[in-house]
Every structure is written in C-alpha cells, then in structure tokens.
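Lecture 7, part 2: worked example. A protein chain together with iron/sulfur cluster.
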Amino acid sequence: MSRQQWRKLILFSIFLAMPPLFFWYSPWHLWIGARQGILCGSGLLFAVMFLSGLFLGRAYCGWACSPAGIQEAWCMVQDKRLASQRFTWTKWLVWLPWMAAVAVAALQARGFQEVMPLMDMDEGLSVTDSHGYTCYYSVLFIISALCLPLGRRAFCHHFCWMGPFCTLGTWVQGALRTPSLRLRADRDLCDGCGECDAACPMSLEVAALVKSRRLRHTDCVLCGSCVDACSRRAIAFGFGRPDPVG
Ligand code: SF4
Ligand code: SF4
Ligand code: SF4
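Predicted complex, written out as structure tokens:
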C-alpha cells in the first residue's frame, strides 16, 4: 500500500474508534469539568495537540484525528476542493467564545485542582447510552452537512474546535523559529503541473506556495499528499527550522 493509503486507513480506523473516544474530543466536557475544577480527558488531549503543534506542526490533523477520517471518507463521494478559503476564520468564532467560557468556569472554580482523564466515562467508554449516541450522531451530521456541499475538510476549515490547538502550537513554533516537522520545496524542480493542488485535502494552492519558496501554511496538515503526488520530487518532508524567506 502507498503512504497515502496507509494514512487514510489509519484515519478511518481512528474514526471507527470514535464512539468510545468521543468524550476526549468533547468541548462540553472540558467546560463542565472546568466548572468543578476538574481537567478531563478532552482538556488533556487538547493540551497534547497544542504541544504536538510545537514539534509536528498539524500532523495530528493529517494522520491521527477521528473526524478527519470521516471527512476523507466523504471525499470518495464528493471530492471537490473547498471553493474559497475566505471564510475559514469562522472556526475561531466557535473556539474563542468556548475557550472564554472554559477560562471563566476555571477561574470561578479556583483553577483545575484535579485531573480526571475518564470523567463521565462508563468503564472508560464514552458513548454508552441514547444521550451519548444522540450527541455522537449530531456531530457526524454537522461534519457531513459541511463537507458534502462545501468540499474537502470543510468541517476542519469552518467549525472544528480542536484544530486551533494545533494551529496555536504551530504559531508559537513559528514565532520561536524552533525546529519542527515541515515541508521543503525546490521551486526549480517544479513545472507547474498542479498535481499537488489537486491532491491537497485542505484545498491549498500548493504549487503557488512552492513557487513562493515558502511552503508553509496555517491549514497544512502535513499529510504528505502533495509530496506523494509530485512526480518531480519538488516537495519533501523535512525536520528543522523554517527556510528563510527568499
Ligand atoms: S481541524 Fe479538527 S477535525 Fe480537522 S483534523 Fe484537525 S482536529 Fe480533526
Ligand atoms: S506537483 Fe510538483 S511539479 Fe507539479 S506543481 Fe506541484 S510541486 Fe510543481
Ligand atoms: S500542502 Fe501538502 S502536506 Fe499540506 S495539507 Fe496540502 S497536501 Fe497535505
């Protein structure tokens, strides 16, 4: 199997494991826990996502996220690029008020005094009753209702409350210019064929980024689809500091 087939198999397998893991992705549980001074499993996962962003960019989003699994599966039905990147800021309208509510709740509870990774889980499982399944299928519905009409990974672009943690990690990494996983581009090898644009699940203008010699983008999830699509090997994975702008 190719690298991309393995990646999609990993994502889809993690998606199938989503019901038991569901509370680990839950914005609601982070808030409920914060009100009681408890840092629950989703808070721990979001902290790990931020830390991974410091060293691995958004590779979590490319390789290890459950909702990414169903989004890439929907591409087998509706594989169109996102029409516009203009409104991808909408996810911050979800993230910012939610994080503000969590911060207020934690302050009122005088901080997180207890860590409880399995909070509200029944023997370590998240979705075990009709209420849990209603929440789970509601999230699947939101993901599907965005991806089918709007295109690839529309939930990531417009709604996801989790991706911003990885993004913040990459911003801190970029500000500190510390080494991390990244893409490297050689624009002299690029013939402008556009295969990387066609392959990118995040609908990025990859060829233009290659030509700019600055193959770095907030929405790049380091999936490697462009690396594998480029027959001229103009794009490669690397680990190190950002290239100087040239
Ligand atoms: S943006 Fe959200 S849904 Fe998309 S891959 Fe990242 S964490 Fe998963
Ligand atoms: S696939 Fe490679 S050669 Fe084609 S546009 Fe992209 S970087 Fe350039
Ligand atoms: S630019 Fe390349 S590595 Fe980044 S999301 Fe697009 S295809 Fe994946």
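Residues 3-170 form one domain. DSSP finds 13 helices and four strands in the chain. Keep this in mind for problem set question 3.
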